[in-house]
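G., the chain you wanted modeled:
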Amino acid sequence: MKQVIDSFTHIFTGKYYIEGLGFWRNNMNFEGKVYRPWTEANSVLIQVTLGCSINTCTFCNMFSDKRFQVRDIEEVFRDIEQTRLAYPYVPSIFLIDGNVLAARTDYLLKVLEKVKTTFPECQKISLYGGLNDVRRKSVSELKELKSAGMDMIYSGLESGDGVVLERIQKHMTPKQALEGMALIKDAGIETLLSFIFGLGGRERSTEHIVNTTNLLNQMQPEQIAPMALAVQPGTVMEQEVARGEFILPTEMQILTEEKYLLENLKFDTFYWGDHGNNVVSQRGLLPQFQQQFLDRVNLKIQSNPLAEDKVIQTFAW
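Predicted structure as tokens:
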């Protein structure tokens, strides 16, 4: 089966091509723009919530077209059944939109049960979930969700620096992020944390990467996904850049941040450093490939003398 992706932005159209039958199905009831991590390119998408429960981050406009709400469970069930008709074999499913974990636990348990019974061959169910949404659930609730089939949580850390988190209106502190991660660890759920090189701007690059690295060493997620900042059209950050309130970092600062990260990470994890806007694209296990990745970054620094003055390029997702 082929998922139709509009561009590398990970927007999913909700169409399915049935190989061997030669026709398109449009039975899925996706509402608005739909996103998934690039690491879930081969997963089937089920829309459980609409939008993002935070939706204030200055760098993001992914869900500006809709207000957050939990979808009617019967509609979700119908989508699951329609997906079964479209896909004879589904090894992994990703639940969308943003912050699916904001939904009530009893609701999520029903969704997971429906997914597992409809797709008995499915080996992995993942979703987006904010660390503050995790904090609103007990360890016993998280363990229930784990037992019901919730295998992995994708969460946006963005930064480990409290000043940066406040500036981007994340409505989360480093302490809260650490508390959320501790609950996930206690429940035995695998986690991928994403964060953004350059999010501190030119002024706060050092504090951003030092504090992010320190926090990651405490949290020790099983997977991490660093990506370079790309200012999106229509965001608050774009306005801040235009007014001179946010000074974009240089390409050298982005490279220096990744260099510091790779020099100082001290736990086993999988490194998804191959997002489309990263200066150096690389992925693999740490610490096995840590020195190799660091060597690549250092080579890029040495072979790119203009990076010191070159402002990072930004583009729409």
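The domain at 2-308 is CATH 3.80.30.20 (pyruvate-formate lyase- activating enzyme).

Shout if anything looks off.
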